[in-house]
Write a structure and sequence with these properties.
SH3 type barrels, 14 strands, about 190 residues, globular, 7-stranded antiparallel sheet, mainly beta
Length: about 190
């Protein structure tokens, strides 16, 4: 299958890489990284961003804040409160290597020992997408940190499309009321992250 759309009718770009979780305790570059917090066997919470580790006494913590607050703090250069989460309860989202194929349908059961792998889903296969994280793939290049702003619709050209915005624009809409700048993109180029 070719990597780029448009070479023959019906061809679509190769799916983007999956997201896997790595223990934050083993990473040094946490500032601004997407993280997942939780307890094995209990549950997980995502859509969070981290700052650099903090050591207090003999324990290591990771300052963690919701993405919306992180984007606001970065865009407006303000300080925000970040709760300290024990480093052993924080995982960093990283992209799987291209050699790691997604699991087949029979192996979808997950371990409760770590956050599950997130495999991309073609937008056309999704039921609801507004507000969800999306990946655009053009000529084999993955464009991330995007959010769906609409559900699927038919464009003036008859293509099935979606309007997307950068995450900064998406979150700015929430804290300022300012409508985001969006792009109309063919669903053939988009996946849920």
């Amino acid at each position: 299958m070719p990597e780029a759309f448009g070479k023959q009718p019906g061809w679509v770009p190769r799916a983007p890489r999956s997201i896997v979780a790595m223990p934050a305790a083993a990473r040094e570059d946490l500032r601004g990284r997407r993280v997942i917090v939780g307890l094995p066997g209990y549950g997980w919470r995502g859509d969070l961003r981290a700052d650099e580790k903090v050591v207090q006494g003999s324990r290591t913590f990771v300052p963690v804040i919701p993405e919306q607050e992180w984007y606001k703090a970065e865009a407006e250069q303000i300080e925000v409160f970040a709760p300290l989460v024990p480093a052993d309860r924080v995982w960093v989202e990283v992209l799987a290597s291209p050699e790691q194929p997604p699991p087949d349908t029979a192996s979808r059961l997950v371990s409760l020992d770590a956050p599950p792998r997130h495999d991309p889903v073609p937008i056309a296969d999704a039921i609801r997408v507004t507000g969800r994280r999306v990946v655009q793939v053009v000529d084999g290049v993955e464009r991330r940190d995007l959010r769906a702003v609409t559900e699927m619709f038919t464009s003036a050209d008859g293509d099935v499309c979606l309007r997307i915005a950068t995450e900064l624009e998406w979150y700015r809409w929430a804290w300022s009321g300012q409508s985001p700048r969006t792009l109309e993109i063919s669903t053939r180029l988009l996946w849920l992250e």
